[in-house]
Amino acid sequence: MKQVMRVVAVVTGCVWMTVGAMAQETKSKDGGVKPPVQKQEATASTTKKVHVLVLGTFHMANPGHDIFNLKVDDVLTEKRQKEIAETVASLKKFRPTKIAIESDPGGKRVQQYQDYLEGKYTLTRNEIDQLGFRLAKELGHKQIYPIDADGDFPFDKVQEFAKKRGRQMELDEWMATIPKLLEHESQILKDGTISDLLLFMNRPEQVQEDQESYMDFAQFTDGKDFPGPDLLADWYKRNARIFANLRGIISSSEDRVLVIYGSGHLYWLQRNVTDSRDLELERFGDYVGKAKR
């Protein structure tokens, strides 16, 4: 298999998804928005769209949570901190009114951001801190918006199927391409800046290549067992739930939402935005420049 991908960590849980079209904004009790039924007379040309920029990131803290992980040098060094400041300055040009992050809505991130505003929290190497918290504070945002949702990524079932059906070599060949991508990305970071790597990861061509690699899983089936297609379905389901949470934080047609997420989620989050009648997708490269190849 010629394409490559990033494989995200296996996580479990359940968050129910509610998605619909918006023509008017109706606030829910928790400050989110329930997508109302669109009026028949409203058209795409008359409905003001909410602008959404989905930024795919790498894990700056080297947590090692994924099956394959990019090795990153210390982002707290003076050089990398300057680069992060430059990246934050580029993102500021988007003028986000809300910043959504890859974190559990019921977790500790909301309080940590409040502590950060009060000078009681020191930023860690995590990209949520370095990009999300820093930018939100510089923009004067009073809160941060965690939108993550748990889900299954049953890669072990694909491995078991490949072994039992004599397709282990095929799976191994596919997996061997992943370190090559990570090596290329490591070289971009070594020779360039954090923005250079983010630009590469967010290139439409790279997002498409990553998705094509996910789609390779569809081949792991014999017509009776479907571990590959089931993995794809579970992956889409998780991203659909994340997207539902994203919609839930939109409370005005004037909102401009920056989403900071692991790059493996880029394809589906961007696709869900472009497929929505009331949302308009923007891209990181439009605010920073051309990507390095």
Structure description:
With 293 residues, this protein is of the alpha/beta class. The protein has one domain (59-263, 272-288). The chain contains ten helices and seven strands. It has helices at residues 78-92, 109-117, 127-138, 155-164, 168-191, 194-202, 204-215, 227-248, 266-274, 285-288, and strands at residues 26-27, 33-34, 50-57, 98-101, 145-146, 256-262, 279-282. The strands form two sheets. It has a five-stranded parallel beta sheet with strand order 5-4-6-3-7, with helices on both faces. β1 (26-27) and β2 (33-34) form a beta hairpin. α4 packs across α5 and α5 (168-191) packs antiparallel against α6. The protein is globular. It starts with 25 loop residues before the first strand and ends in a 5-residue tail after the last helix. Mean pLDDT is 85; it is low at 1-34 and 36-44.
Kindly list the characteristics that best describe this protein.
293 residues; alpha/beta; 5-stranded parallel beta sheet; 7 strands; 10% strand; disordered N terminus
